[in-house]
């Protein structure tokens, strides 16, 4: 499970939950020693108990099997957050350099602290804006996971990604879809406060990628029925409190994992692997 390396940083639980909804991150922090120890043990066993993160990570790991790993020498985690995917990539590609870029200075500070503590030497985290032009032909792989929906001028970012990639470099994108249907009515009006848009229509995003110069290698609908069910129950349990959410999480993880075994006709998200020829 993703996020075990954060077991010594239980404060990331609130930060991670705040990415789902600001209201989850506003819960009072309890610094009692016993609770802090229990949080550390929980993170060590289960990783970060956010179903959305874990399902996205499972799809990400699956898509990585499509790559020729010998070709991957430099990697950009575009919108790296607290470094979850960067640290995973650093371990999976130990001879490669992994660069995490984010607009949130707290994320960069925490990621660099964890990097030093865990002695993960093939990573580097820097502050950066994905809408700004940067060096060309620099990376063999760019990953952009649930970030594009936060960016107003996303087409500029897609073109920047194309320019940043070396020839035959890969771009992996995961993003929510537009016009999402809920199972539970209480979540019908749920939205993410920081989104520039709810999500993307799959065909439109693929068209935009092709216009930017990319060739589509693989695409999948993510968060089908079982993924959606686990994700929504995770949200509902968080409304009841962290203890209930923590107890339910292992069960929801199993339910969510079923999502990868099925061919989803329509999901809450899209995963796309494309390539620069």
TrEMBL record:
Highest rank taxon of the organism: Bacteria
Domain annotation Methyltransferase: ranges? 73-192
Q: Which GO terms describe its molecular function?
A: methyltransferase activity
Q: InterPro entries recorded for this chain?
A: Methyltranfer_dom, SAM-dependent_MTases_sf
Which BP terms from GO are recorded?
methylation
Under the heading PANTHER family, the entry gives: METHYLTRANSFERASE TYPE 11 (PTHR43861:SF6), TRANS-ACONITATE 2-METHYLTRANSFERASE-RELATED (PTHR43861)
Cross-referenced CDD domains: AdoMet_MTases
Instruction: Note the Pfam families from the entry.
Output: Methyltransf_31
Q: Which UniProt keywords apply?
A: Membrane, Methyltransferase, Transferase, Transmembrane, Transmembrane helix
TM spans (from-to): 242-262
Protein's recorded name: Methyltransferase type 11
User: Can the keyword NAD be found in this entry's annotation?
Assistant: no
